[in-house]
């Protein structure tokens, strides 16, 4: 069954940081009753657009999976959470995507349906990489993060990325957007630093749970950093 994934990134002014913390508890109830929502995660954000040990307390996120685009549109236009963000947030940016490939689990679930990519598709690709890091492996994981973070923004075809997570240091994710699938593969498997880190995740058994997913970006709404397009 075709599903849709949305990622919303919200940026609060400095005075709104306490309200951002309050919202992380307050939003759980309306998410439980959102029509057509099959999976949802309230997220914090890192400062440098990828796995990051330093949180950005002004920036927060919501990743959601919807049964239909109409369910997403209803939420975007009429939900309590949207009214909160319009009242208190400085900026809000949302991307709507179609899942095309997913491997692994998130809290024991497989949240994304799979709709294989057409061989004729030539557009942008979004990638979600998410992991729960074993407590005994935190030192090794975080020691390798800076080298990868330093290379991603200069990688061919890189458009933008967001560091997101549920628990600081332990449950982390990166959502990135690329010009093409070839650019994704070039960075993931042929960029030397990143390829070496991928090998370490296996040989050193860093993760207790992990998920990798790819998407076709469909639409964006709002702005972040004054930019509206990807």
CATH C-level class is: Alpha Beta
Order of helices and strands: EHHEEHHEEHEEHHE
Total number of beta strands: 8
User: Strand percentage, roughly?
Assistant: 35-45%
Q: Return residue spans where pLDDT drops below 50 for at least 5 consecutive residues.
A: none
Give an account of the 3D structure.
With 230 residues, this protein is α+β, with helices and mostly antiparallel strands. The protein has a single domain (4-222), classed as 2-Layer Sandwich (Alpha-Beta Plaits). It has helices at residues 17-26, 28-32, 69-78, 80-88, 138-152, 181-190, 192-203; strands at 4-11, 37-46, 55-66, 91-104, 125-133, 158-167, 171-178, 207-222. Helix 3 (69-78) crosses helix 4, helix 5 packs antiparallel against helix 7 and helix 6 crosses helix 7. The relative contact order is 0.21.
